Amino acid sequence: MTSSSRLYVIKIGGQVIDDEAACADFLQQFAALPGLKVLVHGGGKLATRIGERLGITSQYVQGRRITDEATLQLVTMVYGGLINRQLVARLQALGCMAIGLTGADMDLMRATKRPVKEVDYGWVGDLMAEDVRVEAFVQLFDAGQVPVLAPLTHDGQGHLLNTNADTIASCVAVALSAHYRVQLVFCFDQKGVLRRPEDPDSVIPLIRPADVPALMEEGALRDGILPKLDNAFAACRAGVEQVLIGPAHALSALSASSSGQSFGTIIRL
Predict the structure, then answer these.
(1) Which residues have C-beta within 8 Å of that of residue 170, sequence separation ≥ 6?
(2) I want to staple 106 with a disulfide (CB 3.0 to 4.6 A). Which of 43, 136, 179, 253 is the partner?
(3) What CATH number did the domain enclosing 59 receive?
(4) Is 57 exposed, middle or buried (0-12, 13-18, 19+ CB in 10 A)?
(5) What are residue 64's phi and psi, to 5 degrees?
(6) Full-prediction pTM beyond 0.85?
(7) 3-state SS string over 213-256?
(8) pLDDT exceeds 80 at position 261
(9) Residue 247 lies in a domain
(10) Is residue 21 one of the residues assigned to a domain?
């Protein structure tokens, strides 16, 4: 039975994590957000910088990090250790009962190692909503905890897996939509999806699947926004109440309006 409780699954991008002032502002607003919530964070550029100091060169194919054994150790230390624990400590200082977790903790997210096709991505995990252990999240919420998820899962055979943070946020949102009224929120450094990418104020307030062809024709949708929209529509079709894409600095607007109309771009079916 679906609960009437609202739940926010909020993903914060690396651009905000890398900006000290922006990150501090976001965390303050996240801590103040009432009700049930989950924070999913990316890794930013810190893993690359620390890897360079350790002699580990980052390799990418079409923007996706190749995760060999050395890189897996690196991202585990940086994502699951340094970044995750810093975020948790800062949220605790703000009175938010945060708990830092990877997918291996409480068997929260058991993914599948990406198969080798044209490219061997190494220790990268592919996650689906059915791989999320919902009852563990319910236990955490019942105990008053606020999960802070690092972009790491596991395969159930003792191996950690580097996993895309957007994917984790979407899968967790879909899985929990069977129990809660879920809003999935992607926070980044823009005000929303822009009609004119060169104009930071040209935010498109609402996008439905039928709007996409015309927006593509206008040139409004390009770069990495199309995959994000595909994931957003898929999440809505799977039970997520709505998806929002908007600015980290305006997170407090979520609680000001239950519809999210004052926050970035709303994605609905």
Answers:
(1) 129, 184, 231, 232, 234, 235
(2) 136
(3) 3.40.1160.10
(4) exposed
(5) -105, 135
(6) yes
(7) HHHHHHCCCCCCHHHHHHHHHHHHHCCCCEEEEEEHHHCCHHHH
(8) no
(9) yes
(10) yes
> Is residue 43 a known part of a binding site?
yes
Is 14 marked within a binding site? no
Q: Rounded distance, CA 30 to CA 118, Å?
A: 40
Count of structural domains, the chain: 1
Determine if residue 49 is labeled as part of a ligand binding site.
Answer: no
* CB-based contact 139:129 (threshold 8 Å): no
Look over the chain and give the mean of its residue pLDDT values, rounded to a whole number: 91
What pLDDT score was predicted for residue 260? 54
pLDDT digits (tens, 9 = 90+) for 5-61: 999 999 998 889 999 999 999 999 999 999 999 999 988 788 889 999 999 988 888
208 is in an annotated binding site: no
Q: Where are the alpha helices (DSSP H) in the chain?
A: 14-17, 20-32, 46-54, 69-75, 84-93, 134-142, 165-176, 212-218, 225-237, 253-256
In-domain check, residue 1: no
* Domain annotation covers residue 84: yes
**Each residue of 68-85: b (16+ CB within 10 Å) or e?**
eeebbbbbbebbbeebbe
CB 165 within 8 A of CB 109: no
Q: Per the structure block, which two tokens stand in for 176? A: 């929990």
Distance between CA atoms of 264 and 36, rounded to whole angstroms?
21
Q: Print burial letters for 171-208: b (CB count within 10 Å at least 16), e (below 16).
A: bbbbbbbebbbbbbbbbbebbbbbbeeeeeeebbeebe
